[in-house]
Amino acid sequence: MQSSSRYRVSGQGNVLIVLVAVNVLIMGLLTIFSPSFMTFGNISAILMRMSELSILAIAQTIVMINGGIDLSIGSVMALSGAVCGTCLKMGTPFGVCIILALLSGVAVGVLNGFFVVNINLQPFIVTIATNTLIRSIEYAILRGNIVTGFPAKFIALGDQYLFKIPFLFIFMMFTFFCAMILIKKTKIGRRIISVGANESTAFISGVYVKRTKYLVYIISGFLCAVAGLLFVIRIGAAVPDTGLTAPLEVITAVLIGGTAINGGKGSLFGSLLGILAMYLLLNGFSLLGLNPYFEMIIMGTILIVVVGQESIGKILKGRARK
Known about the structure:
Elements: H1 2-33, H2 40-65, H3 73-89, H4 94-118, H5 123-142, H6 152-156, E1 161-162, E2 165-166, H7 167-185, H8 187-197, H9 199-204, H10 209-235, H11 246-256, H12 268-287, H13 293-307, H14 309-321
Antiparallel strand pairs: 1-2
Helix pairs in contact: 1-12, 2-7, 2-8, 2-10, 2-11, 2-12, 3-4, 3-5, 3-10, 4-5, 4-10, 7-8, 8-10, 11-12, 11-13
């Protein structure tokens, strides 16, 4: 047991080292080929743009450590902004609008948890269905319109800096550290990991498996709603197509970051490094005048390689033996 534990830790450590090296390499190349890359404005833009997607990655990492998956993250993110903007237009006090937006994410988390835990459906199928359902509700709420008119002080948070670091990025890092404490330092975190590692063993050990799964999806829904509000702050509006590509981007970053697709282990820090690499690539494509759609091709290819690495490795070893 101890040797396998050391293997898992060292394996995750190697993944983090590789990710750090990849990010440094990308930054080095962009610094050489694009003089505008290392400017304050460009770096700030990267940090701000990656903030909401990083919070989605934190949510997805927690769910996947628990052995599940949440493909509704993008639609929940969009729903949050839609609820907040629509309630505001109806004359609802802004503080209540924020609460309702966050509760909309929690409600989706409860819905996902109900179908996964009580109906015993596969998380993949459930969250694909709720993703479509919630996206349709969000489109119906906004009716294809962009909602503006949010309070100036709220939108101004997107222009705030502390020690030249964007407020949105600082808020994301605060969320990251809270999630780290939850997973690494609390009983709840240990239960989340144990259920993902072996659900039967966790149950025998006295872990409330169903409650833990419910909690994980509620946390995910809440964090996705928070990410939606951050997006509203950065853009200054609630946009119908918010988060359309988020599931692919986030899951790719989380898997690249060392989180096991079958649950039981994962790295929140690795997920953030994966998000950073994606945004550095996207920024590089923009600065160098390359077609940004090729980035999605690269991400899709990386996702296939990461998910299928064990099978690919076995195939290569089998051919080598022949």
